[in-house]
Structure formats: C-alpha cells, structure tokens
C-alpha cells in the first residue's frame, strides 16, 4: 500500500502502482488540506467574489460572470465540451498513471475540490478501473484539457473504461461494482482537467521503459562485442575517468562486468589496433543518453508532485491566484530531450548490426547465412533496423519548438508537450525492435565463434534468449522472431535486467 501525500511520490512507487497494481491510500494530513481548500472555495461562492473558473467562464470567456444557480452546471458543461480527444487511446498503463498523478496533485490542497473527488480517484485505482483516453487533442498548455476531460467523464459515470481486460461503458461498470458517480460542484471540473498529467503520465511510462532499454542496450552490445571479437581495452576505467562523466564510467563498468571471463574479446593489437566507433564508443554514446535520462527523471519527479491547475488557493482562501502552472514547457523540453537520447540507442545499434552482417566488415558468414546466396539470412533484418532508425529521426524532431495560439489568442503560447511524450513512446517501441534485431544477429555471431568461450554473464543471457528465438539454420519468417524477442525485452521480470540494475547502482 502506497500512502499518497501530494509531496513525495517517486518513480519507483509509480512503477509499483501502475505495473504491479499496488493499492493506494490518502494520508490524513493531505485530506485535511483538501478539506481546508474546499472550505475556501465555498466561502468564495457564498461571498459572491469573482474568481476565475469558480463563477466565470473559461479561457476567452473568463470575463463572463456565471450566475450562482449555474455554477455547478458550469463545471459539467466544461467536462463534456472539453472531452473531444481523438485517435487511439493511450495505453492502459498510461491511463492508470494519469489517474494516479492527477490524484496526487489534488492532494496538495491548492485546488479546492471536495474529499469525495479524491476518494473517487482512489476507487478507480484500487478497483483497476481505468478511463479510455484518446491520445490526440492536447496542446500541452491550459493543461492537458482534452485527455483529462475524458478522465473526469468517468468520475461522472460517463465515457468508457478499461476493466478486466476489456472496454466497457462506464455506467455499466459502476452499476456492477456499486460505485456512485460524483456530481461536480464549484471549481471541481476545472481542478480535474487543468494540469499536465497526460504528458507527465506518458513521460513516466516512457522513462521506465527507456531505462530498461538502456540497460538492455549494454547487454546486447556486450554480446555483439563477443560476436565481433571486440577490443576490451576501450572500456578501461582510466579512459572514462579521464573524461569525468559518471554515466559514461557506469556504462564502461557494466560492459567490463558483463564480459568478465570472456575468451572472445581481444586486446588492442591482437587482431586490430582499434574498433569502429559503434563498438569503441559504446560508453560515450550510451552514457550521454543516460545523462539525458537522468535529467528527465529529475523533471518528472518534480512534476509528479506539483500543483499544476489554475487558479490555486493559498492561505485558507485569502489568497487565490491565477497563474500558469498548467503550462507543460518543462515536461515538453524533457520529452524532446528524451526522444533524442533514446533514438541514439537504436542509431548506434543499427551500425553494430551492419558490422555483424556485412562480410566486408567481419570474418563471419555473409549476412550470418547458413548457405550464403541460396539463403539470405539476416540481410533484410538490417533493412528493417535502418528503416526504424530513419523513422526515429523524424519523430525526434522537437515538439516543444512549435506553438499555435488558441482560445481566441488568449492562450497564445503552448508547449505541445503531450505530442512530444507520445512521439517519445513511439521512438521507444522502435528502439526496442532495433535492439531485438541486434540481439538476433549477435546470438548468431557468437555461435559461429563458440558459445563455450563466452563470459558467464553473456552466456546466461544467450541461453535465455535461445529459449525465445532459435538459431538461424535456414531462412524463415524473421518478422516472427523480431516480435518474439521484442516482447521478451519488454517484460519487466528478466533476471539479467535486474542484475544490470544492481551493477548500475
């Protein structure tokens, strides 16, 4: 059970809640802050003060004063009108993360909701009822309005939900489970949708998957080094300490640890003086991507515990300020940075694939074929990797440099952070497939060299991988192999991945 406070949520806790379905509870102190904040809103309504989003319209309509009798309808109309997202839904794990992160933000006590709103979000999480939320339609400022409106619809008993592996109409699931829909009151609709939780939730899932991929990149690169009889001297600690980047030193150490005891690696001058960059510069390239991932982690953990709606209520309602914490620029830039960093794992991997299959660059059978000419072997797998890498170059174009004014030019600069986070997710899926192709090729290469000469760590990986994909003894439909290895890499319970995490720590 994870206790939520609005202040201390970590990525490790998010992983437990969103992937392992650990339940959540609300701290007493946070609930008290929520209650105090709500009293402030009720006093504003009673005193007939004019406050944005409580008794005014939204966006360009902020100057329209709403009658007392219409305050609740204002919130309902807001959710229904803003729930106009389009496209495929976010992955269910992202939807779960969105519920969690919106709940955590509301528990800070600056948003003016009633406790029942927070408790309803807890119910969704603990009963594994997740809103169906279309991916497209957010500008990443004024909050992730469209995606979060689809989340809010579910609290009202409307929209659709993921439940028990299927998609249902929300009302049917609520009736089955005896859940009462909420009726929104003053400010509550705005408090639910004015935030960055779509881009941040997608970003959190991206980071969790990307860090696993980064570790897998090191393992698969180590396997390739054995397949190509790479030179281990380039990973000597003195080289990396001389430059001083901790992440680069970490990668070099992981490669050394993984290849400890290998009879397939060589020393400089034995077979060649130095390797190509895609082998020799693994710590420098992978390490630089780790630097970016560490930056992204820092920004995500701040945003996960941030108050991002508008207006915010301070000093028991004596200070209500309209500001711009809903603007997604910090996460937009972080997601763009992540896109570039993760894409590089595939870029250098594809070059290692080329060195594994190109007979002009190695002494292995051409394209790792068992019968070169009659059988094409891994020839077209390299094409696929090259295609995915090229696609990533397009996806890696920064979304945050774009902005289109909205709401009659009232909202005249936006972050496009949700687009950036979605593109980062697509890049991650492409990178995983490129690594799967390198893995298949490297497995074949070490077989030609002699698996009995492998390091204990890479040999253990080899044995596990061979349970997923067999040796290439003749041409077959390699698309199946790529997808099987890709799915295997995506699983979170790989023993060798856990071991690599320990090495990094």
Tell me what you see in this structure.
With 505 residues, the chain is mostly helical. The protein has 2 domains: 2-195, Orthogonal Bundle (Fumarase C, Chain B, domain 1); 203-311 and 323-406 and 415-504, Fumarase C, Chain A, domain 2 (Up-down Bundle). Helix content is 56%, strand content 6%. The longest helix has 33 residues, at 417-449. The relative contact order is 0.12. It catalyses: L-histidine = trans-urocanate + NH4(+). InterPro entries: Aromatic_Lyase, Fumarase/histidase_N, HutH, L-Aspartase-like, Phe/His_NH3-lyase_AS. This is Histidine ammonia-lyase.
User: Which percent range describes the beta-strand content?
Assistant: 5-15%
> Which sequence of SSEs, written as H and E, runs from N to C?
EHEHHEHHEEHEEHHHHHHHEEHHHHHH
- Structural class by sheet pairing and helices: mainly alpha
Q: Care to count the β-strands?
A: 9
Determine the CATH superfamily of the largest domain: Fumarase/aspartase (Central domain)
* CATH domain class name of the largest domain: Mainly Alpha
Q: Briefly note the CATH topology name of the largest domain.
A: Fumarase C, Chain A, domain 2
Instruction: Please give the alpha-carbon distance between the first and last residues.
Output: 25 Å
Uncertain stretches: 500-505
Rounded radius of gyration (Å): 26 Å
Q: State the domain count.
A: 2
Largest sheet: 3 strands, antiparallel
Shape: elongated
Helix content: 55-70%
**What is the count of DSSP helices, taking H or I runs of 4+ residues?**
19
Q: Write the CATH architecture name of the largest domain.
A: Up-down Bundle
Strand order, sheet with most strands: 4-6-7
Average residue-wise pLDDT: 93
């Amino acid at each position: 059970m994870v206790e939520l406070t609005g202040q201390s949520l970590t990525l490790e806790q998010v992983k437990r809640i969103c992937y392992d379905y650990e339940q959540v509870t609300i701290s007493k102190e946070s609930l008290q802050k929520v209650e105090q904040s709500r009293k402030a809103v009720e006093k504003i309504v009673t005193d007939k003060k004019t406050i944005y989003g409580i008794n005014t319209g939204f966006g360009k309509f902020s100057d329209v004063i709403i009658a007392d009798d219409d305050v609740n309808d204002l919130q309902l109309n807001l959710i229904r009108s803003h729930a106009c997202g389009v496209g495929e839904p976010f992955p269910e794990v992202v939807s779960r993360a969105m519920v969690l992160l919106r709940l955590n933000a509301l528990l800070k006590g600056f948003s003016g909701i009633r406790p029942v709103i927070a408790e309803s979000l807890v119910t969704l999480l603990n009963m594994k009822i997740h809103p169906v939320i279309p991916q497209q339609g957010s500008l990443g400022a004024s909050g992730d309005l469209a995606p979060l409106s689809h989340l809010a619809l579910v609290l009202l008993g409307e929209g659709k939900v993921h439940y028990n592996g299927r998609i249902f109409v929300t009302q049917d699931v609520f009736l089955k489970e005896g859940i009462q829909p909420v009726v929104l009151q003053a400010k509550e609709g705005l408090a639910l949708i004015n935030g960055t939780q779509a881009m941040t939730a997608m970003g959190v899932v991206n980071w969790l998957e990307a860090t696993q991929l980064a570790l897998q990149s090191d393992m698969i690169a180590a396997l390739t080094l054995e397949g190509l009889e790479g030179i281990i001297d380039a990973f000597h600690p003195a080289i990396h300490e001389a430059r001083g980047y901790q992440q680069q030193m970490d990668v070099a150490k992981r490669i050394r640890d993984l290849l400890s005891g290998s009879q397939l690696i060589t020393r400089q001058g034995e077979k060649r003086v130095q390797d190509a960059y895609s082998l020799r510069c693994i710590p420098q390239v992978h390490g630089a991507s780790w630097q970016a991932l560490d930056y992204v982690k820092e920004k995500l953990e701040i945003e996960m515990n941030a108050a991002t709606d508008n207006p915010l209520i301070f000093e028991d309602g004596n200070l209500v300020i309209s500001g711009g914490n809903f603007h997604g620029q910090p996460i937009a830039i972080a997601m763009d940075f992540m896109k570039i960093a993760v894409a590089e794992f595939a870029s250098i991997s594809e070059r290692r694939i080329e060195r594994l299959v190109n007979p002009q660059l190695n002494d292995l059978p051409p394209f790792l074929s068992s019968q070169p000419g009659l059988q094409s072997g891994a020839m077209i797998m390299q094409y696929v990797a090259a295609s995915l890498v090229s696609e990533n170059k397009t996806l890696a174009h920064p979304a945050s440099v774009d902005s289109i004014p909205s709401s009659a030019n009232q909202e005249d600069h936006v972050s496009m952070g949700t687009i950036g986070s979605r593109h980062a997710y697509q890049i991650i899926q492409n990178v995983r497939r490129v690594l799967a192709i390198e893995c298949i090729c490297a497995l074949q290469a070490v077989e030609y060299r002699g698996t009995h000469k492998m390091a204990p760590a890479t040999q253990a990986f080899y044995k596990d991988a061979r349970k997923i994909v067999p040796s290439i003894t003749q041409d077959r439909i390699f698309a199946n192999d790529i997808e099987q290895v890709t799915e295997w890499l995506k699983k979170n319970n790989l023993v060798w991945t856990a071991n690599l995490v320990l090495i990094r720590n």
